[in-house]
Amino acid sequence: MRIPNLFIVRPVALDGAFVDLWVVELSRSHRRSLLGRDDAAIIGGMSERTLAIIKPDAVERRLAGPIIHRIESSGFQIRAMRKVRLTKREAEGFYAVHRERPFFGSLTDFMSSGPAILLVLEAPGAIKKWRSLMGATDPAKAEAGTLRKEFAESIERNATHGSDAPETAAYEIGYFFAGIELV
Ligand code: CMP
């Protein structure tokens, strides 16, 4: 049976995060050493999605272009992107997990203070990869070369947001985007 070198079988939901499964034709010797048999291998979980936000402070300072450039040059696929002005209520829903924190009111005021850009990013290990590119939440603690070190003004006006785990990514992507909008 002839199997193409590499093709996507179908997107699947795995542990709440969307991944693509790939069928790979390995060389005969490679197959033997990896699998002990000649079948094509199905190896999964190579691609992951995360929600990214370019926050109102960065949009206001016209930093969306440089940030999107860094996203693309870092190897992410942008699966969806939309500019929105969140209502206070929408910001409260999005950050509901922080409801008990002392900064909740101020954070949701800020997030609804002007337009933001919502993106769904895809790459192998996208959640960790995007968090590394952003840097620490507090720009004072962010490493050189990270987006927050370069662009953030404070721990609250910190330029970007990213999901912190697969379950959070699934919730956050679903909060803003319907599946049909992810292309
Ligand atoms: P974000 O990655 O969007 O997730 C939650 C946000 O809460 C975080 O970025 C910051 O903008 C904000 N935040 C976290 N800690 C503090 C803090 N101590 N004071 C003010 N805002 C904070």
**How many extended strands?**
7
Q: How are the strands of the largest sheet arranged?
A: 5-6-4-7
Low-confidence stretches: 1-32, 34-44
Mean pLDDT value: 84
> What are the bound molecules?
adenosine-3',5'-cyclic-monophosphate
Enumerate how many helices there are, as a single number. 8
Strand proportion: 25-35%
Gyration radius over CA: 19 Å
The helix-and-strand class reads alpha+beta
Helix content: 25-40%
Spatial gap, N to C terminus? 31 Å
General form: globular
Order of H and E elements: EEHEEHHEHHEHHEH
Q: Main β-sheet: number of strands, strand sense, barrel status? A: 4 strands, antiparallel
Quick gist of this model?
The protein has 183 residues and is of the alpha+beta class. The chain has helices at 28-35, 56-60, 64-73, 88-94, 104-111, 126-134, 147-151, 166-176, and strands at residues 6-14, 17-24, 41-43, 48-54, 77-84, 116-123, 160-162. The protein is globular.
